[in-house]
Structure prediction request, 555 residues.
Amino acid sequence: MKKLLGPMLYVADSQSTDTWAFSVNLYLAGTDPTKPPPLRPVFLDMSGAELPGAVEPQAEVAADFSGLKSPAAGVLWKWRVSLRREAAPKRVAYRFVPTDGAAPLQGVDDVTDVLIPERGGLPRAAFFSCNGGGSADAWNAVSKMGRPFGCWDDMKEQHEDPAGGFHLLIGGGDQVYADSIWYASKELVEFRKLPREEKLVCELPAGFHDEMVARYVELYCERWGGASGIAPMLARVPGLFTWDDHDIFDGWGSHEKLQASPWYRTLYSAAALAFEAFQLGGLRTADKTPRERKPGETHYLQTVRFMGSECDLDVVALDLRSGRTTRVRSSGKVEYSVMSDAQWAGLDAWRREHRERPEMGKKHRHVVVVSSVPLVHLRFGQAAEGVGGLIELRDDMLDQWESHVHRGERSRLIMDLFRLAKDSCCAVTVVSGDVHVGARGLIRSRNPEHLPHGLTEATIEQVTSSAIVHPPPGLLEFLGMRMLAAEGVEDLPSFVQTEMLPVGSDRYLRERNWLSLCVKRPGSATTSRPKLWLRWEAERTPVSMQVVVEPPPLL
Prediction:
């Protein structure tokens, strides 16, 4: 038995103010998926006493990759954890203890500083995106920095501070940069050299799907392992992750005709299986062995609910990659989509469920929507996108919600979020990543269908935090992008406007950063409401500015 990756914590719905639930996963080589490993996690209070009943006795198979032809072949095991909350926040530790006379597992140290919220409290969260580099140049730039994983080090330091700490880790996309997958085999290297039309019909070599699954699993073991970077936080703070293009490969979903290539679809399938296992905490099928995933066949919309005494918090993580595609109708008309019909239906169903909860109008509520790509950012017009195609940047242009081909769908999402805010009597806040700078956007509506009683304007804040590891754009590069784009107030249909607002002393935070967010309890039950506070944590510059979101008055 050998540790390949982990431990990693994954958040679960917390529909009780008295308990805190999550799972702990460990990826092991040399175990039989038909019987539990001779190992169990034990949770301890800070005096070292075991917390009885914290862990379900039976480990589950979350994913079985033991059949891969790879040094990273193994089984992902999951243990479900439920801890009782107390009147004040508390810290616990855990360790893995051998059973049945087995030898101790090497490479897994005791983990301290797992923070449990107080009874009735809501989780404090850390949000991040872009955990790596998409090219050799980007990785070289990271390695030359004095603190290559400086933002992760700062987050861990804040987590260990007795006065602070985090209960939830939210990944907004690009948790793994998998672009090196294109050099993972001789066949892929040769495929890249083919003309576009040949790529569409080129046959796959035998066993190619399993080989690519192995390469993606190896990437997670490499990029999420070790003692620095993301690994210490994965072991201490339960996570919730959505994906973006680099978790598959650069520009996935925006390569138009090439999306139909069997090679592209195979890479998507392999990436999706690894994403399910290591970012969602387990394969999304009863059979935990890897089976092919087809683009658009499923989606990864995630909704997690946290109940508090004075306020509830919901996190809705959109999936902007599984259904992103190009459709060519029989007439020759080309249509682009970001979210699949199935995900739209899932989001509509969740909005109805949220509206119909008994708390609606009687208890304050916040909804945080994770959109891996910002709804409000630099706007490149159709002419600029055409120029981008000439210099092989078309996929980067199409990747954005602001692209002219996605603007109708973007408006639909914005309208749905305003309707959610009004119909559910809640505040909606969007957090996003992708763009390698910190930024703030504001969406305003004067549409009567969006206005709470007595107000003349409704607003949705968007806070963008990117990147935690990827180097920021150079000054000249970023100035060039701003010259080609519009960033002023934009009027949308139905009395809606968007606007970019400053982050501190500048409009953009052009350095590595992440985000801390929490709902603070009201100072007075009669005069104040529980507000959501969001703050950029930059690598070098102290950003004193915070975004504060207040829920609407109760009905």
The chain has two domains: 1-120, 127-176+224-253+295-549. The first helix runs from residue 136 to 144.
